[in-house]
Every structure is written in structure tokens, then in C-alpha cells.
Amino acid sequence: MKLNLGCGPRRLEGWVNVDTVAGFNPDRVMDLDQTPWDLPDGVAEEVLLNHVLEHLGASTASFLGVMGELYRVCCDGALIRINVPHPLHEHYRTDPSHVRPVTPQTLSMFSQAECDQAAAVASPMTPWAHILGVDFELASVQYVPDAHTETVLRERGVLRQDDRAEDFAEIFANLIAEIRMELRVRKPATRAEGQPA
Ligand SMILES: C[S@@+](CC[C@H](N)C(=O)[O-])C[C@H]1O[C@@H](n2cnc3c(N)ncnc32)[C@H](O)[C@@H]1O
């Protein structure tokens, strides 16, 4: 199964399109903030959240619920594509239904390897992957600059030509418009029946 969560008006053919707004004519009307989701375990091999995750999880409990459900409904190796506005971009700030900044660092907290590393160096990072028993590997990150802001900063010499815009994402508001991230779901192999533990 392929899940287009928060599909809005952009339904994808061959996918299960999910939204809370019935008017978008999704295949399933669901409030993703309400967990558990009415979907079986391990059924999704691909999930798309295109400008949706920043609308979910206004409370810590509901965000953790969403991450837990994403993990539960995915199979091992599933690919989750998450596109969000950069939290320092006006696109994030202007929409009152944007309730949750999401960055690659946020999602890394749901990786077992990242939590293992943090624990090894006594980092104060909350080991969410350990706590929730989930494992999402951050497979790729792409920063999409805001063309107008980048041009202004380069023309005025604030950014040099060899500077990468993404390295200044936390310094200049409106420099990065969008962050595109891919998560790979890691689930332990289930023991075949009759095999010793
Ligand atoms: C910015 S739109 C993006 C729509 C679509 N993914 C796209 O690429 O055009 C956000 C979508 O998330 C949906 N949404 C927001 N909160 C939701 C929730 N709690 N459960 C399900 N869908 C939700 C909205 O109804 C809306 O369709």
C-alpha cells in the first residue's frame, strides 16, 4: 500500500489518499492527530506527507502518536517522504494551522542509531527512538532555497558565490523555503515460526 497522508486536492492514482477534509474526496477521511489510525500494521511500503507534518502534533503527545503510527503502519524498508516549510521561512509562520516545526534534527531523534550515539556521549538529547521503540533512518535531506532571498543576499555580497545557502539556513530568515526529507523505516526481522529465540 502507498499512503498519501494529508492529500488535500492532490490525489495520487494508485495510492490510498487520506485527509481530514471530506471535500477533497480522499479515499479515507481520517484525522491523523487521532491515534491509533484505522490502518493495519506493516502495510505501507511508501508514504508521502507533502506539507502535512507541520500541521500535525500540536501537543508533544499527539506528535509522538503520529510518529508511532507512521512506524506501525509501515513495513521494514518503507520509504517516507516528508516535505515541510523551513521553520524560519514566512511560509511556515503565516499559516495558523502550522503547529509543529519539523527539521532533519527533529526526525533524527527517532533513529535508533542516532539515539545510540547520543547515549554513548551522554548527550542530553531525548532518545525518542529508544522510548517509543521506533527506528527511522534519515536517508536524505534536501534544502530548497527561496530564490528571491538567495538572490538578494548574493547580489549584496552577504552570501559569497561559493557559499551554500543551506549552511546559512539558521542565520537568515526566509533563505530556505522548503526541506525535503526521506526516512527509511527499519524494523527487526520477525523470527520464523518454530525457530529458536
Ligand atoms: C498544505 S495542505 C497539503 C496538501 C497536499 N499534501 C499537497 O501536496 O497539496 C495540508 C493538508 O493536510 C491536511 N490535514 C491537516 N491536518 C490534518 C489531520 N489532522 N488529519 C488529516 N489531514 C490533515 C489538510 O486538510 C490539507 O489537505
Brief characterization of the structure:
The chain is of the alpha/beta class and 197 residues long. The chain is built from six helices and seven strands.
Would you kindly provide a written description of the structure presented here, covering whatever features stand out?
This protein has about 200 residues and is an alpha/beta fold. It has one domain (about 1-145, about 175-185): 3-Layer(aba) Sandwich (Rossmann fold), CATH 3.40.50.150. It has 6 helices and 7 strands, in the order ββββαβααααβαβ. Strand 4 (about 45-50), helix 1 and strand 5 (about 75-85) form a beta-alpha-beta unit. It is globular and about 65 Å long.
User: What value does the average pLDDT take?
Assistant: 96
Number of helices: 6
- What can be said about the biggest beta sheet? 7 strands, mixed
CATH topology: Rossmann fold
Query: Proportion of β residues?
Result: 15-25%
What's the multimeric state?
single chain
Helix content range:
10-25%
End-to-end separation: 31 Å
Shape: globular
Q: What hetero molecules are in the model?
A: S-adenosylmethionine
Estimated radius of gyration:
19 Å
Low-confidence stretches: none
Order of helices and strands: EEEEHEHHHHEHE
Q: Strands of the largest sheet, in order across it?
A: 3-2-1-4-5-7-6
Which CATH class is shown?
Alpha Beta
* Second CATH tier, the architecture: 3-Layer(aba) Sandwich
* Total domains: 1
Count of distinct strands: 7
What structural category arises from helix and sheet content?
Answer: alpha/beta
| The CATH H-level homologous superfamily | Vaccinia Virus protein VP39
